[in-house]
Write a structure and sequence with these properties.
alpha/beta, Rossmann fold, elongated, 2 domains, 9% strand, binds iron/sulfur cluster
């Protein structure tokens, strides 16, 4: 029988909190997401991801060796039934600087999109515009969004399956005009960790289906696919994410990324697994093994 002390739920929670904080700290450092003097505008939807993002960023802010400001914003899109007191109440209670931005994107979307059609893409576009404008007005130097590792992986497959492109969702992005820098500090955090953390923290979650639109069905299917893989092969989602950080253009097929046309013998790493160039160290081959294969072929030549 084990003599070690039982692990209490609070120990598990502190371990989870530490894991999330380290993951966010590492993402910030790896991508140089936050710098001295930054004003980070944290976009809060009222969902588990953005609450977690704000909480962890504030915890890291307290002990960061650099000085930066945090302003939380929530966009009230005027969806029917939106509980407009929840976020102001919560944000006041934790003492964070915040703004509520009112923008009636709901009625614009309802007016422009025929009944029964998906409204998310126009809604997101309108929301993005308001977020950028608000960042400018507030003098924010960084816009922090609550997308996590699993959002990034799902986007990779969505783009592959429906867009024919190999691209995901970058942890750090300069907008088209170069005016804003968008950061995703939860990029290394697994969704299930965030969900557990949010449950423990009892954040006042605002449901995301107030607009009455269906959640993106294709994204849902991909999420189910990845969750199925993860159940069968634990760690697969992490492996997929790590592959995004370990890209080998010479082993893809994009002629803009790698100059295949001028490929020559001294091109460096040209290893090819199907050609036996990789993983050969897994077999214990002696020099005579090669000779034996050669010898058998000679016998066949003689018989002919
Ligand atoms: S679910 Fe509703 S609020 Fe969310 S992006 Fe789609 S249309 Fe907009």
């Amino acid at each position: 029988m084990s003599t070690s002390a039982p692990v209490s739920p609070s120990n598990n929670f502190f371990r989870l909190q530490k894991r999330l904080q380290s993951a966010v700290g590492k993402a910030i450092a790896d991508f140089n997401m936050i710098e001295e003097g930054d004003t980070v505008m944290v976009c809060l939807s009222g969902g588990k991801d953005s609450y977690t993002l704000l909480t962890i960023l504030r915890a890291l802010q307290e002990r960061a060796p650099i000085d930066f400001k945090i302003i939380a914003i929530n966009l009230d899109q005027k969806q029917p039934g939106f509980p407009e007191d929840v976020l102001p109440g919560y944000l006041s209670s934790i003492g964070v600087d915040f703004r509520i931005v009112e923008a009636d994107t709901y009625s614009v979307v309802k007016e422009k999109i025929p009944e029964g059609k998906t409204t998310c893409s126009l809604c997101s576009r309108l929301r993005r515009g308001v977020i950028y404008r608000t960042a400018k007005e507030l003098g924010a130097t960084k816009i922090a969004l609550g997308h996590h590792r699993d959002d990034i992986i799902e986007t990779l497959f969505l783009n592959m399956f429906f867009g024919g492109t190999l691209k995901a969702m970058p942890p750090k992005l300069a907008t088209d005009t170069g005016e804003h820098i968008v950061i995703r500090p939860l990029a290394y955090c697994a969704e299930k960790d965030i969900a557990t953390y949010a449950r423990h923290m009892a954040f006042p979650i605002i449901p995301c289906d107030l607009c009455g639109s269906q959640e993106n069905l294709q994204r849902k299917k991909i999420k189910t696919m990845i969750q199925g893989w993860e159940r069968e092969f634990p760690g697969r989602a992490d492996k997929i994410f790590r592959s995004l950080q370990n890209v080998v253009p010479s082993h893809l097929a994009d002629t803009d990324l790698f100059d295949f046309k001028s490929l020559s013998g001294d091109a460096g790493d040209v290893s090819d697994p199907l050609f036996g160039d990789e993983g050969s160290s897994a077999f214990d081959l002696s020099e005579t093994d090669g000779t034996r294969i050669q010898f058998i072929r000679n016998l066949r030549d003689e018989a002919a």
